[in-house]
From TrEMBL:
Location of the DUF58 domain: 58-268
Record-given protein name: DUF58 domain-containing protein
Species of the source: Marinobacter mobilis
One Pfam family, short name: DUF58
Length: 315
């Protein structure tokens, strides 16, 4: 069954909640033919290759078969025309990279960025599982890379979701672990060492700490693999409120900002918007298809909308 509304409002993700997202993960394969309204169609999806074809069987020629698929050796040996038939490639490895760094422990409305990332990562894992792929991934914090080797089984999906929930629930404002802005590059480098070709890599992150090195790593990873980025963002990054007071913390420093003061609001708005657009620009330059997911709304409907799959309105 789909995730319940009470699940969505939970501060942190639970294993049961992520497992229940299986129903929401019965979406079309990211590699399949996309609807015209999908953000993966056309220009945005030009780097998603789609599935290849694997040889299935030899069978007798039937009227209408493509003559390019004639198997001349079998035809010559038997004296009857035979064609090769092909089936869509299955059992591709899919890696889901889920960001659970301290920068993700923020949310101004419905969800924390870390929890939204957990939801999106779970849906991506279920989509791959129902497409017949082997599912694995890396859950990363500021100091740790927790790796799950791809395997085609429901238990392996459960293992991945369990680790996502564990790291999500371990996030705390009392955590004194220093931020590691180079961690995302380390995760992508780890993928490059294992995902040599024809794998699917879903990166779910706010992409804090991206740099020109990140750009090069993404391009290198996408050269022989299908890479899809889910950019998790908080609405404060694009539109600050006109009034109210907020405390901004960075390591041990805390600053209280009054949005009623035009100067304070403008300075913070410029900083957050610049950071958001730098990430957006870098992902565009990487030519990796990317979908933006806001923490202000449930994640699954946003994925459906991005894929052009809005549910029909109930009367």
């Amino acid at each position: 069954m789909p995730a319940r509304q009470d699940d969505i409002r939970q501060v942190f993700a639970s294993v049961d909640q992520l497992m229940r997202l299986e129903a929401d993960g019965r979406l079309p394969d990211f590699h399949g033919r996309q609807r015209a309204t999908s953000q993966l169609a056309g220009r945005h999806g030009s780097r998603i290759r789609g599935r290849g074809l694997d040889f299935d069987q030899l069978r007798h020629y039937q009227r209408g078969d493509d003559l390019r698929h004639l198997d001349w050796r079998a035809t010559q040996r038997t004296g009857h025309p035979f064609v090769r038939s092909f089936a869509e490639e299955r059992d591709r490895p899919t890696l889901v990279l889920c960001d659970q760094r301290m920068d993700m422990l923020f949310g101004s409305s419905l969800l924390l960025k870390a929890t939204a990332a957990a939801h999106v990562a779970a849906v991506a894992a279920w989509v791959a599982f129902h497409a017949g792929d082997r599912v694995g991934g890396i859950v990363f914090t500021d100091q740790l890379l927790d790796t799950v080797t791809p395997h085609r089984s429901r238990q392996r999906v459960s293992d991945l979701l369990t680790r996502i929930a564990r790291h999500n629930q371990a996030l705390s404002t009392d955590n004194t672990t220093p931020r590691n802005e180079g961690q995302l590059d380390r995760v992508i480098s780890r993928c490059l060492a294992t995902a040599h070709h024809d794998q699917t890599v879903c990166i779910v992150s706010d992409f804090a700490g991206v740099s020109e090195r990140t750009l090069g790593l993404l391009r290198q990873l996408a050269q022989h693999n299908d890479v899809l980025a889910f950019q998790i963002y908080d609405p404060l990054a694009v539109d600050l409120p006109r009034s109210g007071v907020v405390t901004v913390a960075e390591d041990e420093a805390r600053v209280t900002l009054d949005f009623g003061h035009d100067r304070s609001r403008a300075e913070l708005a410029n900083f957050l918007q610049q950071r958001f657009h730098e990430v957006d620009d870098l992902l565009r330059r990487s030519q990796v298809p990317h979908l933006k997911i806001s923490t202000a709304e449930p994640s699954v409907p946003q994925i459906r909308q991005a894929l052009g799959l809005q549910r029909e309105q109930q009367p």
